Amino acid sequence: GCAKMFDDMALQAGQNPLLLINAVDNMVHGDDLVSIRSKILTQRVIRPVSDREKLAFRIFVTALVPCLIAAYGLFRAAARRKEVTR
After folding, report:
1. Of the candidates 36, 48, 37, which has an alpha carbon nearest to the alpha carbon of residue 15?
2. Phi, psi angles (nearest 5°) of residue 12
3. How many other CB atoms are there within 10 angstroms of residue 45's CB atom?
4. In the 8-state DSSP scheme, what is residue 60?
5. Under a CB-based contact definition with an 8 Å cutoff, are residues 21 and 37 in contact?
6. Which helix (H) or strand (E) is 16 found in, with range?
7. Higher pLDDT, residue 32 or 8
8. Quick one: how many helices (H) and strands (E) in the chain?
9. pLDDT digit string (tens) for 43-72?
10. Rounded to 5, what percent of the chain is helix, strand, coil?
11. Domain ranges for the chain
């Protein structure tokens, strides 16, 4: 096996320390201790999105992106027509 999984960087990423502790507890004590520890609250890192931000994103996705794609298509078509006429 590789001892790299016990490296400090690997243990600090995400919920890896909790996973390691739960794996050891499961092997030693069974599911009882794991079910208690799994109820630990975690801090949410994604903030709630306001209604104004939702509206701005919807407008961006449904209107601006297709308009940009259409403008690019028109630009390419004009460039091809110009190239054919030469």
Report:
1. 37
2. -80, -15
3. 5
4. I
5. yes
6. helix 16-29
7. 32
8. 5, 0
9. 767 888 999 999 999 998 899 989 999 999
10. 75, 0, 25
11. 3-37, 47-86
Give per-residue burial for 54-83: e unless 16+ CB within 10 Å, then b. Answer: eeeeeeeeeeeeeeeeeeeeeeeeeeeeee
Give Cα separations from 77 to 47, 53, 84 (angstroms): 43, 35, 11
pLDDT reported for residue 34: 64
Is pLDDT above 80 for 18?
A: no
Contact 26, 34 (CB under 8 A): yes
Integer Cα distance of 68 and 11 in angstroms: 44
pLDDT (average), residues 10-30: 73
Cα separation, 1 vs 17, whole angstroms: 19
Task: Please say whether the beta carbons of 48 and 42 come within 8 A.
Answer: no
Predicted model pTM: 0.39
